[in-house]
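We modelled the chain as a single entity of 77 amino acids. Its sequence is:
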Amino acid sequence: MQLKLLFFGSCADAAGNAETENDLVENTNQLLDQLFLLYPKLENQKFSIAVNHKIINGNFELKDGDVVALIPPFSGG
């Protein structure tokens, strides 16, 4: 079972790639724990988490095949 991970902007720079797959974990808190171990520079980044194209707040249950994106703050113009 897998998750698809997308990294945007400074998060992609910190992770060293823009897209990867990860073994399924139960929730976003567990995922973040894993990502911070794999990509320590991510801990210094500010970002929002989107699951299946929806920004989430707090801990969120993950399912096989979910797409998780780490999105840094952005501004419009």
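As a brief sanity check on the tokenised model: Residues 26-60 form one domain. Strands lie at 2-7, 19-23, 48-51, 54-56, 67-71.
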